[in-house]
């Protein structure tokens, strides 16, 4: 009886013929204009007056990678004083538009084309901006001395922080812009804040060496 019950409870496996199944569908990745229902996407970047001449000189260096490599249309609107970007039908990725806008914006902030173009090639790069007054309220000669401490003699201090943290720094009057990865920006910003608060350059250098050595050990 037990053997009979066991045979009844046994499940019968059905052999499925794979040839009878329908073919697995293959979907091509959507293009940029298809993601937005065929609508063209735009970005506009304002051009400050002091960046007109540099933009005119470096226009082809900016235009070539955006138009040929990223497949994004770009033009200068002289009336609106803006650089206009828009997607094309052959734009491979919708994120290319924002990358190009970040690249142009970084150039407008004062970064060189050679440095700013890294925003097109690497995903983990950002631009962080802050003002000296965000760290400490300074006026008159105190503010001038703080800006002098940030740059150093002949830009020595700024270059030292850039090389140690693998970032690029632009000091435009009281505004400071940093281009780099999230972690490196944090290290560079901490060093710059220490200088603004009055720390001597030597102390900042030694702290930078310790932090960068720790980063090398971690990775």
From TrEMBL:
<keyword id="KW-0694">RNA-binding</keyword>
<dbReference type="GO" id="GO:0003723">
    <property type="term" value="F:RNA binding"/>
</dbReference>
<dbReference type="GO" id="GO:0005730">
    <property type="term" value="C:nucleolus"/>
</dbReference>
<dbReference type="Pfam" id="PF22891">
    <property type="entry name" value="KH_PNO1_2nd"/>
</dbReference>
<dbReference type="InterPro" id="IPR055211">
    <property type="entry name" value="KH_PNO1_2nd"/>
</dbReference>
<protein>
    <recommendedName>
        <fullName>K Homology domain-containing protein</fullName>
    </recommendedName>
</protein>
<keyword id="KW-0539">Nucleus</keyword>
<comment type="similarity">
    <text>Belongs to the PNO1 family.</text>
</comment>
<dbReference type="InterPro" id="IPR004087">
    <property type="entry name" value="KH_dom"/>
</dbReference>
<feature type="domain" description="K Homology">
    <location>
        <begin position="124"/>
        <end position="197"/>
    </location>
</feature>
<dbReference type="InterPro" id="IPR055212">
    <property type="entry name" value="KH-I_PNO1_first"/>
</dbReference>
<dbReference type="InterPro" id="IPR036612">
    <property type="entry name" value="KH_dom_type_1_sf"/>
</dbReference>
């Amino acid at each position: 009886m037990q053997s009979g019950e066991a045979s009844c409870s046994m499940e019968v496996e059905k052999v499925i013929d794979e040839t009878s199944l329908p073919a697995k569908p293959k979907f091509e990745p959507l293009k940029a204009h298809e993601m937005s229902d065929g609508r063209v996407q735009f970005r506009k970047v304002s051009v400050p007056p002091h960046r007109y001449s540099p933009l005119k000189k470096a226009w082809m260096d900016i235009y070539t990678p955006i138009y040929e490599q990223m497949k994004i249309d770009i033009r200068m609107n002289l009336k609106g004083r803006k650089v206009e970007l828009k997607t094309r039908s052959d734009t491979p990725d919708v994120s290319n538009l924002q990358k190009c806008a970040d690249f142009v914006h970084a150039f407008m902030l004062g970064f060189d084309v050679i440095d700013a173009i890294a925003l097109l090639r690497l995903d983990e790069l950002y631009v962080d901006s802050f003002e000296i007054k965000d760290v400490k309220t300074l006026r008159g000669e105190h503010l001038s001395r703080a800006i002098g401490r940030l740059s150093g003699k002949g830009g020595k201090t700024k270059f030292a922080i850039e090389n140690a943290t693998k970032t690029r720094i632009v000091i435009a009057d009281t505004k400071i812009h940093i281009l780099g990865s999230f972690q490196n920006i944090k290290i560079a910003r901490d060093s710059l804040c220490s200088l603004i608060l009055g720390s001597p350059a030597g102390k900042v250098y030694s702290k930078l060496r310790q932090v960068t050595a720790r980063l090398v050990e971690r990775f």
